[in-house]
Design brief:
With 446 residues, the chain is of the alpha/beta class. It contains 22 helices and twelve strands. Calcium ion binds next to loops.
Length: 446
């Protein structure tokens, strides 16, 4: 409060109590204060064995960051001796700028990322040539994302399989409206951009010719869909649920329908931090794995929703988050599907093995898809470059160490860095041992 005094003195008696109150309430507590409020003591014995007892991580208020929030709130990080300072990032570009600064420069050491942000920050492709080496340590969550469409295009009956439900729709839209169908995401050339491009192209729609793709901040999308500045939005929960709960739009498809148990967002940290603090990195992973296992249990979903709904975390109604966590989506223009537990976010177990482990075959896909759309010319121009970057940035040894120290059952500890062949809804196969054949099989690409 000390910093307010000069302002108060300046304004003197002209300032009203109401203003003061709302002004104070308008400032969210810092993470440090929130940690103290949670009153979960750091395990000092465990902390003494680490190279450092603290780390600063960025998060975006969407379900992908739930393992980090739960790790703090349930004391999983504290149990392993780590005081995790979670800092809310106003956008993906802010997170990128903060990781370039590092915590020593008032920024963050790492946190939650869409891919290939950590790879491209390492290569300087997102940072004006400044290379900040990062390592991908774990997957935060799978599924839980989707493509929402505005009610104004309800007659398009957009679904996962556009060839079946919406043939010719986008061409007709352009003819009738005199402009292209507009679709948005919150950050270009990363997850949400990949999902919408994959979906459109699989439906025979060229995302670079038949529609207009835009970057729009997530909080502006509901209004944008209402007033017609865009017809679709590729996004993470709770946004698809918010849209399908409102009278603004409908959920055309979930990402889980496009690619079951697909890779989504990841935990990645600056390499210099990890190299200096390898034991603390393992402690961080142990806390996160425990948080993911906790989030996986159906009986914990309500408590998780309550926790995440708090103003200091997501500031979204608990009921919306509970629906999202349980995968209770209303899908399609007719909103026929009421509950699809298999399509919701996954944090630990799946029929493709553990979610958390950073499979190199999955982190590679984002670089191969970057090649498909020529997103990062000069950095990712060949499969060999993609593989070399992937091998440098994705690191599984610390995850395996954490898993063993936690005493996880053998079935939960992968023995290969490849998850094997992946099959998309349209029958396309991504074989990580032969990315060229995947690229060859795609009809629409740049
Ligand atoms: Ca996402």
């Amino acid at each position: 409060m000390l910093h307010r005094r000069p302002l108060l003195a300046l304004l003197g008696g002209a300032i009203s109590t109401t203003f003061l109150l709302s002004g104070c309430l308008g400032n969210p507590p810092s993470r440090r204060e929130a940690n103290q409020a949670a009153a979960i003591p750091i395990n000092r014995q465990a902390s003494a064995k680490l190279e450092t007892g603290t780390i600063s991580l960025g998060f975006i208020p969407i379900l992908e960051s739930a393992p980090l929030v739960v790790g703090v709130e349930k004391g999983f990080f504290a149990k392993h001796g780590l005081d995790v300072n979670l800092a809310k990032q106003s956008s993906w570009s802010t997170a990128r700028d903060n990781v370039v600064l590092g915590s020593s420069g008032g920024g963050i050491d790492g946190g939650q990322w869409q891919l290939p942000m950590p790879q491209m920050i390492s290569e300087g492709a997102l940072t004006n040539g400044k290379k900040v080496q990062m390592v991908i340590l774990a997957m935060l969550m799978s599924q839980g994302n989707g493509i929402a469409a505005a009610n104004s295009v309800k007659d398009g009956n957009l679904s996962v399989d556009l060839r079946k439900t919406s043939p010719g729709f986008f061409q007709k839209f352009s003819q009738e409206e005199g402009r292209k169908f507009r679709a948005s995401y919150s950050f270009p050339k990363a997850n949400q951009d990949f999902w919408i491009r994959y979906w459109l192209a699989a439906g025979g729609v060229n995302p670079e010719r038949d529609v207009e793709l835009l970057t729009v901040p997530a909080p502006e999308t509901l209004q944008g869909m209402k007033n017609g500045t865009m017809e679709a939005f590729s996004t993470g929960d709770p946004w698809p649920s918010r849209i399908s709960n409102s009278d603004v739009g409908y959920l055309a498809t979930t990402t889980a329908q496009i690619w079951k148990v697909h890779p989504e967002e990841y935990l990645a940290i600056r390499s210099d931090w990890v190299n200096k603090h390898p034991k603390a990195a393992v402690a961080l992973l142990k806390g996160m794995i425990e948080a993911q296992r906790w989030l996986d249990k159906p009986e914990n979903k309500t408590q998780a929703a309550r926790m995440l709904s708090s103003r200091k975390w997501f500031n979204v109604p608990q009921s919306v988050l509970e629906q999202s966590l349980k995968g209770q989506y209303r899908i399609g223009a007719k909103a026929t599907h009421e509950s699809n537990p298999g399509l919701g976010p996954l944090y630990w177990s799946s029929d493709r093995g553990v979610i958390s482990y950073p499979y190199k075959s999955l982190t590679l896909w984002f670089l191969i898809e970057s090649l498909r759309w020529k997103f990062y010319p000069g950095t990712v121009d060949t499969i060999q470059q993609a593989q070399a970057i992937n091998n440098r940035v994705t690191r599984d040894d610390l995850w395996l160490k954490a898993a063993r120290e936690l005493g996880l059952p053998a079935k939960d500890i992968p023995t290969s860095s490849s998850r094997g062949k992946e099959v998309f809804f349209d029958g396309t196969v991504y074989d990580p041992s032969n990315p060229q054949s995947y690229l060859n099989s795609l009809k629409i690409k740049r």
